[in-house]
Amino acid sequence: EPTVRTELMEQIPPIAIFLQESRPNFPTAFFEYLMPIVVRYLTDVNNQVRKAGQEALLILLEQDLVAQSDIENKVCPILLDLSAPDSDDEYKVEAVNIICKMASMLSRTTVEHMLLPRFCELCSDGKLFQVRKICAANFGDICNAVGQEATERLLIPKFFELCSDSVWGMRKACAECFMAVSYTTSPEVRRSKLSPLFISLISDTCRWVRQAAFQSLGPFISTFANPSSAGLYIREDGTLSIRPSAQDVNSNSCQPSNNVTLMSPNANAT
Question: How far from the centroid of its chain's Cα atoms is residue 263's Cα?
């Protein structure tokens, strides 16, 4: 029964945490018994079971309960198979979604060597616009996961493609995550490549794209500022924040904090 498998998946994370805390008594139980179940359920025929398996996997990764070897040898190969060009449409959409979500939880080497090539392929998926939209919505997170060099070498060309996609929702998603992409690049790339690209979005024929671009204009401009002098920085949750200077802190020591937090355009991307 799918409901039984779904309930089972929901119990995996707390069981895994218990086994981790009791590791001297159960040194290999999680890797021998539970992890194979999670991996198998990622390809279950029932979509609710798959969804429960995906959520369980993300919790396990967030809690750092999955060994690096299991990630590279068991989890990534399954996701690469599910996101292959000839994969079922529903499986492919789910796979690219979980690839984007787990990228921030894995090591940069794992993401760059195992997942980035497939992500770049999926950005150009001509069959499913849903796949391209997921890639566009999470583009900033992928850039942050792989760093400046891989972003400029591999991802920026794909970003240009998505920003000129025939589907306006794709261009809108790119406008919303523009600040996060810009933050990962060098000042020269921001000036020579991203600035003209942003102008094209702010002049787009679709008003929804233009509106998203105008909302991202301030955050995009902020990426040109020197963090040490401007006090602008990106928090781990993807928000742009302003750190008050030491002089401001001293002068307002008896006043409530005046910190201002501006949401990153891709912080609420779906």
Answer: 16
Q: Which parts of 42-88 fold into alpha helices (H)?
A: 47-62, 68-70, 76-82
Structure tokens at 49: 């079971």
Nearest Cα residue to 102 out of 32, 156, 37, 55 = 55
Give the total residue count for the chain: 270
pLDDT in tens, 194-207: 999 999 999 999 99
257 token code pair? 């904090």
Q: Which residue has the tokens 């979500």?
A: 101
The radius of gyration computed from the CA coordinates of the chain, to the nearest angstrom, equals 21
pTM over 0.85: no
Nearest to 110 by CA among 81, 156, 140, 147: 147
Cα–Cα nearest to 122, from 134, 112, 111: 134
Phi, psi dihedral angles at 240 (to 5 degrees): -90, 125
**3-class DSSP state for residue 263?**
coil
Q: DSSP assignment, residue 240?
A: E
pLDDT in tens, 112-163: 999 999 999 999 988 888 999 999 999 999 999 999 999 999 999 999 999 9
Closest by CA to 259, choosing from 244, 238, 248, is 244
One-letter amino acid of 142: I
Strands 240-242, 260-262: pairing is antiparallel
Token pair for residue 131?
Answer: 């796949």
Which residue carries 């998926």 as its tokens? 125
Q: Smallest Cα–Cα separation from 146: which of 213, 95, 99?
A: 99
